[in-house]
Amino acid sequence: xxxxxxxxxxxxxxxxxxxxxxxxxxxxxxxxxxxxxxxxxxxxxxxxxxxxxxxxxxxxxxxxxxxxxxxxxxxxxxxxxxxxxxxxxxxxxxxxxxxxxxxx
Length: 104
Known about the structure:
Layout: H1 2-7, H2 13-32, H3 38-52, H4 56-69, H5 71-83, H6 87-103
Helix pairs in contact: 2-5, 2-6, 3-4, 3-6, 4-5, 5-6
């Protein structure tokens, strides 16, 4: 996350801070294995892969599926994927943050 923070343009600072906060919620749930079911974790992985491949249609379909069918698992961490400007751009940003965060 530090690398992303240091490279993000100033105009995206609030987005990065919000994404980090929400991703920390997600990571807490992943580490504690207390909210996300294995199939949802797999869907999140597929979402990340689709975004890295810039397959935004597939990524959006996966995102909608998670938001529609896994509402009890989504909480605050998933809201930021859709709530901020430019769904595709934000989803790509979150994916990069998710990948980088898992390597810290």
